[in-house]
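Hey, can you fold this one?
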Amino acid sequence: MTEAADRRRNIAILTEYDGSSYHGWQYQDNAMTVQQALQDTWFKLTGEKISLAGSSRTDSGVSARGHVSNFRTDISIPQERVALAFNSYLPPSISVRAAAEVDMSFNARMMPIGKRYCYRYWLSPVRPALQRNLLAHVPGDLDIDKMKSAIPFIVGKHDFTCMMDQGSVIRETVRTIHKLELERQGRLLTMTVEGDGFLYHMIRILAGTLLYIGQGKMTIEDLKEAFAGMDRKKAGKTMPAEGLCLEWVFFNQEIFEEAAFVPMEGGFF
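Sure. Predicted structure:
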């Protein structure tokens, strides 16, 4: 083993970002993304070019506060100072919350066993201003009990073709949702969903489907028909990206202690 190989390290970072400022996570040739901003920042810091492997390729406009990625490096910045180093150069819309040195075999893109997302609706006649990048504005009220009555028909292992938009190259459409919850606090309604993986726009369509049920535009029978017929047209609309946030990524090994990063009471708000 060479001396350079001896110095090689694998660093995982936990990142929070405002997705409204970026064209998604994944690198693009003609648009700024979160991945590019992080890689460019490391280059400014160290002169080293890195390639980040990301645990989720969030779409344009989608935010995160628990995104995990990793990169190989020869730089000897101590683990406990990596986040501070990143944040000294990153734009205000991105923050590295923590960093951890991991085994060289760790790959954040290939190894997640589950993810937690939240979709947040703002139920008010008046649109929000301060949190407009983190909320989906719904002018009318919703029947929350009806929305909750749909949960048992969604949780579990299903073919979710009816909740996948066109444009995906994925052929395996069976996914397992382990948890689906709705919680209302004043005008804020939060949908929390955990699963082993999600299809293209699946969570935003799920949020739109529950919205339609809450508005009386869909029934439980309509939902059953959408699943049985694998018919996208029979499910709800694709909700705006602004309401969606990646909260946490699960691995077989604990990279970051989740309890240390639980938001303050009230979450973002």
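The chain has six helices and ten strands. Let me know if you want another pass with a different chain boundary.
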